[in-house]
Write a structure and sequence with these properties.
By secondary structure, this protein is an alpha+beta fold. The protein has a single domain, classed as q2cbj1_9rhob like domain (Jelly Rolls). The chain contains 4 helices and 10 strands. The mean pLDDT is 96.
Length: 231
Amino acid sequence: MSVHNFKVGLEQTPVVVIDNFVADPDRLVDIAVDMAPFPGQSGHYYPGRRRRITPQDGESFDYVRAVCQSLAPIMDSAYGVTRYDILDAGFSLVTTPPEALEPLQSIPHFDHHEADGFAILHYLSKRPGGGTAFYRHETSGFETLSAERLEAYAEARRRDLESMGVPQGYHRGDRNGFVELASVEARYNRAVIYPGSLLHSAFLPDNFNFSPDPRLGRLTGNIFVRATVWR
């Protein structure tokens, strides 16, 4: 396991990148294949298919639990978090073509506006999968969201729609009123940890296949945790 930390933007938000994340990633892909086909999403902005992992899922939940336990010293060092709970976990595949996206799927987003939420993203595809980028919203100047910023952000986004129109396709680079601050390339068995309040978006290569097959598509393990004790 190789760990690299860096800070994003003017707000200096810590992001952690971990290579060689687990000892046997091929086994995780096998588990995901056994759990396929993943269900489609409704009432959710993830642009594809997701299979939630629960304590009833045996070996796959053992993976989630082991990941969370192994990250304890890293979470402490990077964020000062000494204890956290699992909020949600699953395997995900981006399968929605650009022309079928809803407007909110075409801009960077945040997972939580609370400071205690963190995302753990584990890349499990051997094919080129783009990566994950982090952004600043130009009109508001926000890089992270909070309860105090939500109203101002919504108003700034309304002004963006008036001046720029409805966004389309998958987001990449500087567009739609957002400036890219940093990016992490998707590599097999690499993990990224970041606060859920940080504006971010997946970026996809030009030849992306949108496959629902875990062996062919952009398979990721996604774990969301909430900090309960801070140093």
